[in-house]
Amino acid sequence: MPEAAMSHSTPQAGEMPEDVLISVRRLKKYFPIQAGWMKKTVGHIKAIDDVSLDIRKGETFGLVGESGSGKSTVARLMLRAYDLTDGQILFRGGNGEVIDLSDLTDRQMRTMRREMQMIFQDPYSSLNPRMTLLQLVGEPMLIHGVGSQGEIRDRVAELLQVVGLRPEYINRYPHAFSGGQRQRIGIARALALNPSFIAADEAVSALDVSVAAQNINLMQDLQEKFGLTYLFITHDLGMVEHISDRVGVMYLGRLMETAPTDQLFAKPLHPYTEALMAAVPQPDPRGNRTRKRVPLKGEIANAANPPKGCTFHPRCPYAQPVCGTDEPALRAVAGGRQVRCHFAEELTLTGVTT
Ligand code: SF4
């Protein structure tokens, strides 16, 4: 990896630019593959391999990629739902202090979770059907010992209003609500402890398009109102283009490209990004017809046995012999972008707005 790129993508421990809320550095998560009755470790699934990214205060960072690319694992590692195999996660707490989450014990991490929350994909299974809205939304406050019973009730009523639900619903159970409303209950719960960072994992993927759009608008309003920072994980490129300030593209546990959203969609620098964009039908800018969808060639490789060299090379239409032997590094390029391709400067790739 060139020196300049190295220093851009992996700054030293403890250093974090003032405008960054959370920074992951050289993050790795390997899951052991066990075999036989002795459960001997015979290999590892490299679910996340050397991911570095910064998310700035108040921005929405979109993480895209096919199923199996590792994007949800990155979010779970950031919130320490999984232990890291290696790497570092730096987070700027409410008092401005930078905390290395990778070193925290479970107990210390529980305190940090007041500032970091997650919204899950499935609004049906993520809410306990036996709990009322008061219990569901108030539970984080109860767990963290925040407020008396009366204060929790008032706060839950306020949060229901904030997410567009009537406070009178406070004693109802989730089954009385639609999928979109249940997702709003999940958002209210995530907001209960005034977090600064929310990771939304395919948060609106299970919803109808119009309901999803309403909830996305709600999330954008809440971001402005409460100064929230979002990590928005989705396989939906249209959604990510709409909501994100910057985007990271993941493939087989690695970041292939990061860029400001408009630049990424106008001019992708990585062949995988181009292929993802081509796989979504786009309106033809010259008329009302839809530009043809070009399905992505082949399947995502096995993370237990990734291809040598560039992990994307078996599917890449631009692959050269070196791509099968030498793994490209994620390196900084002009415009505050990063790319992991030997030939990024030589290729002229097609975006969706060209
Ligand atoms: Fe394609 Fe080679 Fe670039 Fe990988 S390094 S994306 S195989 S051109």
TrEMBL record:
Protein name per UniProt: Peptide/nickel transport system ATP-binding protein
GO molecular function, one term: ATP binding
PANTHER family: D,D-DIPEPTIDE TRANSPORT ATP-BINDING PROTEIN DDPF-RELATED (PTHR43776:SF7), TRANSPORT ATP-BINDING PROTEIN (PTHR43776)
Gene Ontology CC entries for this record: plasma membrane
Keywords, in A-Z order: ATP-binding, Nucleotide-binding, Transport
PROSITE patterns reported for this sequence: ABC_TRANSPORTER_1, ABC_TRANSPORTER_2
SUPFAM superfamilies xref list: P-loop containing nucleoside triphosphate hydrolases
GO biological process: peptide transport; transmembrane transport
Domain ABC transporter: 33-277
Family: Belongs to the ABC transporter superfamily.
InterPro entries: AAA+_ATPase (IPR003593), ABC_transp_ATP-bind (IPR050319), ABC_transporter-like_ATP-bd (IPR003439), ABC_transporter-like_CS (IPR017871), Oligopep_ABC_C (IPR013563), P-loop_NTPase (IPR027417)
Source domain of life: Bacteria
Primary subcellular site in the record, as a coarse category: membrane
Membrane topology: Peripheral membrane protein
Span of the signal peptide: none
Subcellular compartments: Cell inner membrane
